[in-house]
Amino acid sequence: MKLHHITIKGDGPLNEDALIFNEQQSLFGVADGVSSLVPFASNGNLTGGYIASHAVKDALEAIDSGEQSLYGALTRINEHLHMKMTEYQIDSNRKEELWGTAVAAVRVQDNGIEFIQTGDCMILAVYESGEVRPLTRLQVEHLEETAVELWRECIRRGFRTRDEIMPHVKEQLIANRQLSNAEGGYGVLNGEAEAVGYFEYGKINKVGLTHLILLTDGLFLPAESIPEGESYWEFIACSILEKGIGEYAADLIDLEESDPECITYPRFKKSDDKAGIVLSFWEET
Fold first, then answer.
1. Is residue 124 within 8 Å of residue 212, measured between CB atoms?
2. How many domains does the chain have?
3. Which candidate, 276, 280, 253, places its Cα nearest to that of 123?
């Protein structure tokens, strides 16, 4: 098994994405911190999203027994986040104050791959046949699409800067946050007891498996950049495997830099934090 990875800070002051490596347990993952909508910084000047994503990183990297399931591990991490926010006097009844993290993790076992996900991190399995199999789905997609459509409407009305557009979209983004770990909403690891009910988890066998790709949303290509008629996840997986994840990320950053006001490719920030891992099980001959 070979491993390639990358993480790059986006527009924010800290890289709230984290890479997870526990080689002793063959456990790997990515986490995408989600800061509160209410300004917050710890005594060490860390954002809530950074604290949350690194809490997942630290806990999963500390696992030293294969007997602990990923579901059990994330459940305990979620409880830890709740206690951490209590220490900082965060009001758990106000979702806009909560911070948390999306996460996708896998553990490679002799007879298969254990996986778990919540939020909008993705796991893609690639097979000898060329099939690209998403093991997870974007839990926030249906909500973010509403906000993106508002962004597009502002562009159609003639707005040409992020500063002009964001006030028209911010209310929708706040409304979306109220649906964390709720019916009709999305899952996120944010200390809410309901969070565990929104985990996507399971196990696949390794027959024909050549690669696993784990990504935070900062490494997703804009939908408008995908050639017409191409499968979105297949195009991304093939691009990563053909270019290597480093070159893929560099090309994505070039695209973002070409559209700093997010007009050609509607999105909420010029460049999001990025974290990705490619596990390769197939040796070229």
1. yes
2. 1
3. 276
Distances (CA, A) of 82 to 70, 136, 185: 18, 25, 20
Digit-coded pLDDT (tens) for 239-256: 999 999 999 999 999 999
Tens digits of per-residue pLDDT, 82-104? 999 999 999 999 999 999 999 99
Quick check: is 285 in a domain? no
Beta carbons of 122 and 191 less than 8 angstroms apart: no
Could you tell me the strand order of the sheet in which 17-22 lies? 17-22, 27-34, 100-109, 112-118, 200-204
Structural domain including 111 reads 2-280
Give, as one character, the DSSP assignment of residue 186.
B
The pLDDT of residue 273 is above 70: yes
Per-residue pLDDT, averaged over 173-202, amounts to 97
Q: In angstroms, how far is the first alpha carbon of the chain from the final one?
A: 15
CB 249 within 8 A of CB 17: no
Taking the C-alpha atoms of residue 94 and residue 242, their distance in angstroms, rounded to an integer, is: 45
Report yes or no on 69 lying in a domain. yes
202: CATH: 3.60.40.10
The total of other beta-carbon atoms located within 10 Å of residue 3's CB is 12
